[in-house]
Amino acid sequence: MVSPQKNNSETTTPASFTSADPTRWWRMWWRSLPPTRQDRLAALAPLVSVAFFMAAIIAAFWYLRAEEVDRDQQALKRDVEYAQQRVRLRLLERQEQVMRIARDLAYGDIGTAEFVNRAEVLVTQYPEMQVLTWVDRDGRIITSYAAPTVPSEQLRMPGEKLQNDEAAKSFQSVKDSNHLVYTQPPVRAGYNPPLLQFHSPVMGTSSFGGTVMAEFSLDNLMRYAIPSDLLARYAITLSDGQGKLLAGTPLTPARIKTNWHTLAQPEATEYQIPVSPVGSDLTLKAQAYRTSLSMVGNGMFWLVAAMSLLTAWLLMGTWRHTRKRLRAQDALIAETNFRRAMENSVLTGMRALDLQGRITYVNAAFCQMTGWDEKDLVGQMPPYSYWAEHDYEYLHSKLKDELSGKTAQGGFQVRVRRKNGSMFDARLYISPLIDARGQQTGWMSSMTDITESKRIRDQLAASHDRFTIVLEALDASVSVAPLGSAELLFANKLYRQWFGSQTTGHLQLVQQGGLPAERSESVDDEDGLMGLPTDSLTSASSNNAEIYVAELGKWLEVRSRYLSWVDGRLAQMVIATDITQRRMAEELSARQTEQAQTASRLITMGEMASSVAHELNQPLTAISNYSSGMLSRLEKGSLTEEQMRFALEKTAHQAQRAGQIIQRIRSFVKRSEPNRTLSQVETMVDEALELANIEMRRRNVRLNHFVAKRLPPVMADAILIEQVLINLIKNAGESIDQAQRPATQRYVELRVVPKETEGQAGVEFSVQDSGKGLPPEVQERLFEAFFSTKNEGMGIGLNLCRSIVESHQGRMSAENLYNGSEVVGCRFSFWIPLAATQEKGDNLSTVINPNTRNPA
Fold first, then answer.
1. How far is CA 65 from the centre of its chain?
2. Are 681 and 764 in contact (CB under 8 A)?
3. pTM (predicted TM-score)
């Protein structure tokens, strides 16, 4: 029981005595009992105390006995694992030697005799290896060497084939997988314990060449591999996967006993483990011998127990008091360790100052940032060692504000000097340090390294400035607005000059350019991005259009693309470039081209004037002759009605012929806007030949032509194509004149045939002459503007011809014709696509740029 002095010395608050101090309740209960009952309980108190103490002694005994058994079991486990490692190393050494023999057999370095010699050395040197056998790829034994102690039934004879046993199964497994295999055959009644088998494949350069089979004696393996001290302390056995004994002698299983003798004679402990690398087919098992009495049978234990009874009362009191102190100490240590670990794990530097500015605490992060140790910093007064020298005045003022309580909520930025002299930027946050009694004892500062974040912010600010400067200096209007919203996210200087700061200009450019800028109206369960062009959203290409803005009086090229804005919204960027000057230049160029084409036709007709005059002279002469004849006959009175009708018909025919020639010339030379229509190739060729034949007849040149039947129509300006054909035929006639060819070689051939170029169907026009061809220096500059080989030529004919062909999406080329090494003529050809292909290209050009004009 607790003494009154002890009772009076303890003080516990009423609110916590039931949980914090259980003896308080016991003392109060004891005082409330009558004296007689106190005496009875006082008499029973020693017995109760002894009973409790004996129970503790018995519990301690069972605990110690369990500890003893566990120690024995752990020692047995360690020894068995050590023995298993020794057996494993022994097997691995033999395995390496057998694999070396198999490798030499695979490379053909040894034969049968050498194999037997090496097997004899291994069997003689290592007692556990009993048999070494060489098996070919078909499972037939080539040769075998066995120890003299091997029974006859376990011997393997040369030429014998492995039967359907464990060796044959292992051989087939090695043959299928080309891997090493250990096999422990099962124990059969009436036979000697089977030998452990190991098969190593003999791998040739390209295929399986058999195995080398080694058989081990488990008795010898256990005797020579396991240390003798372990064999002396334990009954060690080797058994197969079914638990059948293979080697060693086990102890007799102890009978189950229920009397007190079991305390003095504990049962033997045992432990088993599979032998690697064999696996679960071979198990090493050990049982500990009973070498001494247990702890309970030892007299010293009872002596200690008797002495413990004498001090039980003091031990109980001391134990209770000590247990309280240990619990409090453990709780304090755990709480301290937790707080220390939490402080050391944060990345923010922590620093505590007292009210005079002395450093009282720094955490690991603060030391790591500054490079100073805790012992160097704690106790310092300002100026601190991590202050930058040139910032002393600023830092002193900040420290003064800090100690006086003038702290900023967002902290302030400072430069901190590391121990190695380098500097970094940091941000300090100050808060008062309050103790458990609610009194301020100092100031707590947290410091964060902002060097990297400040560098990134500076880079971002510089990048933003550069980006803004570039966009503001662009000679194009740039605007960004979210889809379906009137908000303008960005606009550069030129946009603001043209349209102000509103979204009106952006939407006007989008609308006039035909660019989608709104989401389609759909039901709530549909995708909000329906109706947008998926190709623009999924590719980096942009939409282009050329529009005229009347308010600005400018032609603008508008380009648009979709992008994800910084807040995740889908936005549309529109770039508008002023192309007014370019459009004016294009229109001027188009007008000049039209004038050049007309001038070229006039020049062509001027060059053909004598031929046309000669051609017109024939019908005019015929008309004059018919008129004179009729007048003379009228004077003579011999003109009949039938003769007059005949003469008038002939006169009308000749007049019609002259009119057609004049009309054809007028149609050819008149100035007209380009007019592409669906034209028949045969019609264009016939009309061109009608004028070209006049020139060819004057030059005494035959004009042959071939036009393929059933040619599809082409989308072309017939007058321009006729101009190209007439120019090429006229140039061919001039080339023949210059070459002064004889009459038999004065011909020009026009061929019109279908031809497919780069996968597009079209029609090829070719004009072939029999002149002297084109010199190399002329071929290089043939289609240049204002280049001509004629003394009076302007050099615009072929250049215009090529421009006309290319405006029809065609190609034009020229080449010399050879007979051996001699040039016998020249061939000009041009190709234009058919109407369907051309319309498809025109439609594509219109979609990309609907305002692009035909350069012809």
1. 63
2. no
3. 0.35
